[in-house]
Amino acid sequence: MNEGDVALACMRAFAGALVRSGVGEVGLSPGSRSTPLALAVAREPGLHAHVHLDERASAFFALGVAKAAGHPAAVVTTSGTAAANLFPAVVEASMARVPLLLLTADRPPELRGVGANQTIDQVELFGPYVRWFVDADVPTVSEDALGAWGDLARRAVARSLGPTPGPVHVNLPFREPLVPSGAEVALGGAPPGRTIEGHQPPPAPTSAEIDMLREMLSLERGVIVAGSLRAAGRPALDLGERRGWPVLGEPTSGLRVPGTLSTGSLMLGDPKFAKDHVPQVLLQLGAAPTSRAGLGFAGGAERLVIVDPDGLVGDPAGHADLRIEADPASLLETVLSDLRPASSTSWFDGWRRADDAARRAVDVVLEMWDEPYEGRIARDLAACLRDGATLVVGSSMPVRDLDAYMAPRNGLRVLANRGASGIDGFVSTVLGVSVVAVPPTFALCGDLTLLHDAGSLLWSAQRGYDAVFVVPNNDGGGIFDLLGQRALPELDTLFVTPHGLDLARLADASGAGYERVERADDLVAAIERAAAAGGVRIVEVPIDRERSIARRAEVAAVVASALGRT
Length: 566
Description:
The chain is an alpha/beta fold. The protein has helices at 3-20, 35-43, 55-69, 81-84, 87-96, 145-161, 207-217, 235-243, 264-268, 271-276, 292-300, 328-336, 346-368, 374-384, 397-405, 426-436, 447-452, 454-460, 491-496, 503-510, 523-533, 545-564; strands at residues 25-28, 48-51, 73-77, 100-106, 132-135, 167-173, 222-226, 247-249, 281-285, 304-308, 322-325, 389-393, 412-416, 441-444, 467-473, 513-516, 536-542. It is built from 22 helices and 17 strands. The strands form three sheets. Strands 2-1-3-4-6-5 form a six-stranded parallel beta sheet. Strand 9 (281-285), helix 11 (292-300) and strand 10 form a beta-alpha-beta unit.
């Protein structure tokens, strides 16, 4: 019996079970050893294969799908370094708690460790970054083959979903011949029934943890900080209102909505304000704050409580008095009914007055500048998108600028690769998100972030995706101008790395639409034109690095002045 026919039959059983377990999108890169799996994916009506030349891009694409959808997507590779190219996306998925299925083809056991071509040790290749690993058997015909391959797919999906979501690695060895002859193969056993798993709930907090939380929530001077969360919840706002605690919601928390502070990051960046507003307790929901000012504020609170559904530590300073692994919304609902309304609102009123003053001052100064500035780009982009839109924000300065300048609003979903906070794979991630999100998907990223994943742009820009990339271009890594490396003589050559590349030519080579915006007032209209045109489009906004440094200092000065008057 032809090995290719047997392998294809087993992989058809595997692929069908993936569909029954809720998987619909697969990133796939070409290769010989993965032929049975690739054919099974392509021939399974319930799976949509997205072909990428680069396995790294394919993995980040699947990551974007899973991040936006909340259920697993899969990535398929051939053997050898093809599998190793998944590693950056695996790390991000693991640290960001994103369900992802890694399906790597491999040589059969007898060809491992003997110098066979395109063979590496793929057993537990991704180490502790996967939730589960299985080195599958070589496909054979047996009495229970149909059920066994279906069960493997079902278990892989279930393990990727929890209790802590993340990547799962299934290594699939195949013997030659890899190409099927077309003969029918009857597999024994019955396929498992339809299974669609959801996120597993985190363990319930203990009564002692709840009692400690209630005690801390009874204090008068508290602050709620919502970092990155898979799902936000109204109870955080209800708690802030009842206790008179200000709520600082980072854009990726889903809680940068009306009722939360508008300029929290900028206010905390003012040393005097931060010193005068040290809370008795800081309740952190989800990941640690993005900005250095936010991290310092959390580390300086008299007491720090962290609530996260996935057991994310989120405590770089090692300052937490209490860490609870629980769904924040459910936990806060449990304790809300027992909490008295605040006896005084002076603490909250002080924060609100300061936030209103800072917002007015910042908006005035941003409107005064005709040339583009990163903070205004972030503010205006977040404000102009229609309800139901999705914005994917890049690491480095864009995510910090969005946190600092975005005004609270409803109807906008903000996603980011903040598990490991890398800039790699960003274009691929955005295109993956666009498969699930209401079109078009919008993205905010720096020029180096775009260039780092230029291969994905070249390969995918004309393949039917719908995404608008807004790119402040300061010709390099402008974040280093704000870090200690600025004083080094090697600043440009080793850190900023000016590239001098023409993004218009990159867009032209890839077939992406392109527009360059020279004036701040013209940005929103350019974004609207790009969205209406459809497809993959780049809106480039040139930034002068030195002027940007000066503008940031001016913003800090007007915020300090506004806070000093409250």
